[in-house]
Amino acid sequence: VVLIPMSCRTFYLEPPTRCALVIFAMLIINLGNVMPIFCTALFVPVLGTLCAVLGEGRSVKATSTLLVGNVFNSTSFMVLGALVINGIFTKCGLEKRFMQLLLGTFSLEGPLFLLFLIMGGTLLCSVLYSGSLVLLAALGSVLEERVKGRTLPPNAAKRILLGVAFCANAGSTVLPISSPVTLITISMLTDFGYDIPINTWVAIALPVVLGTMVLCWIMLLVRYPVEKVDKAILDASQHTIDTTDNIEITDWHMIFLGVGFLAVLGITIYATQLEPIIGHSACLSLGVVVVVFGSGFMSKEEFCGLDWDILALVGGTNVVAFLVRETGLGVEMADFTVSTGIVEMMPYHGLVAVMVAISMIASTFLQHSITGVLLMPLIVAVGIKLQAAETTAILVAIAVPFGMGMPYSSMDNVLSHRTSFLLGRRSAELKGRDWHIAGGWTSVAGGSLVLTLGYQIALMYYKLPPPVWVVKGMTPAALLPKVVVENIKNIQDGGVTWPLGFVNISAFTQVTAPSFAGSVRQRAAPRLRRRRQGGKTSAAEDEILRADAAPTTQ
User: Alpha-carbon distance 23 to 491, whole Å?
Assistant: First the structure.
């Protein structure tokens, strides 16, 4: 990593190459566990300045000013508001009341408890950061007591812990403010000039997530069957479950609980309708921060205890997105991707499948947050090149948290894995094989639903883009540098060549279908002539030959 700035300065590398080296350095730092990921994110503007990533034409001070100035944007303040809303719900003890409701209604080892835990946990984790942490904190003592007392079968404990991890991962995709990956995606799309309505995101993500969790529930029941527990033992153990640790809900709590729910609705579902009143959702987020802490409902100590590492992570990603566009790396990576022979012949659905598969494999082995920081800027650039930025970004962002096949794939997996070792029985401990099989199966189910159900819903909101061979030689305006305009000369096309009429596949067909059909006839004619000489052509192939022989009219 130390050699990268020296190489950039010594060999006078082009800005796109320098940007690629900065991203590579981030990958090396994270793989080596040199520092926490939020520190790596904050290191991006420092490393970019040392590498003179914007080119030698910009002074060190000018480069650093631009990079540091892009750490925070409107999305960053939405993150701050989401953190405070998370604090409100935690202070009111929603997760504890949810767990007490389940424990008082269903048997801990029963299938219905697992179902409602997974489905309810998914929705709860969509508005709570570190959702698995609060769920395990509320459930951990009960599990430990029952497992040590041998009144809860080990398989029941395993599937509960796996269910908590999986529902927390899946719940982090339901809203754009649910996790670092979704926040990173929204931030980058905003930076490139694309605004995604929150209700559109939820309409695509929620059916995929709920469908995956139902399949996950069935898999856990089949994979971890539970033998019947003696009723006398079960009745005795029920009396040992402590559900009396309540947080007293005062009128003050109820008021701010309502503020939290209204803020979630205002930031997500009704953001567009509230624009004439409050403007950007970031203003509403800041208003929530002012009301909650200004009223004294939450203290200064609780303010300091917010998950500031998430804000730092999103800030570093903002800088990466800025670099990808302003250095021209986004254009070069997108051009390289679509110019590959195999890619050029693939339909858009196939390209999305490849990107989803690569992202899920990366998130399984590199963790979700790292994948979001390193891959999503390039995924968004390719999506813009394909004229399908929204569909591509949403589907891949939903797929990233479904990479669950390793104990370390996400912090939710790590917490469940560690909790299993605190239960006091070796047979209840989660092994790597549990994650490989259960997590791998859930990943396959989630990825399949993203590419089928999620893809079809996305096409209801965003039209199918033109074929790859059409967009190959075109540079969308969103990918061009807007600040460091001198880097435009490094882009092959040197300007915008995107036809303004190509807004969807129907417009593309109206413009290019006649010439495309002619080119197909020209390429097919020699082969068909050889087939006709052997008497093997069909009536349709004879028609193609007659059309090819006819004079072309312009």
Answer: 20
Give me the DSSP letters along 18-36.
HHHHHHHHHHHHHHTT-S-
For 350-419, what is the HEC assignment? HHHHHHHHHHHHHHHHHCHHHHHHHHHHHHHHHHHHCCCHHHHHHHHHHHHHHCCCCCCCCHHHHHHHHH
| Residue 194, both tokens | 């694309």
Q: Maximum Cα–Cα distance for the chain, whole Å?
A: 91
Q: How far apart are CA 516 and CA 33, in angstroms?
A: 52
Tell me which of 29-33, 221-225, 497-501 is least confident: 497-501
> In 10 A of CB 224, how many CB atoms?
20
Question: How far apart are the C-alpha atoms of 81 and 288, rounded to whole Å?
Answer: 6
**Average pLDDT, rounded, for the chain:** 81
Of 170-179, 426-435, 534-543, give the range with the top mean pLDDT.
426-435
Q: Are 323 and 48 in contact (CB under 8 A)?
A: yes
Q: What span, in angstroms and rounded, lies between the C-alpha atoms of 270 and 174? A: 16
Q: Give the model confidence (pLDDT) of 463-506 as tens digits.
A: 888 887 777 777 787 888 888 777 766 554 433 334 443 444 44
Check residues 495 and 102 and name the one with the higher pLDDT: 102
Q: Tokens for 217? A: 């529930």
As a whole number of angstroms, the distance between CA 160 and CA 430 comes to 11
Among the residues of 11-153, which ranges form H helices? 15-31, 37-50, 60-69, 74-91, 94-105, 111-125, 131-148
DSSP letters spanning 187-240: HHHHHTT----HHHHHHHHHHHHHHHHHHHHHHHHHHS--PPPPHHHHHHHHTT
Give the Cβ contact number of residue 107 at 10 Å: 15
d(CA 150, CA 157): 11
Q: Which candidate, 63, 78, 62, 59, places its Cα nearest to that of 19?
A: 63
Structure confidence at residue 191 (pLDDT): 80
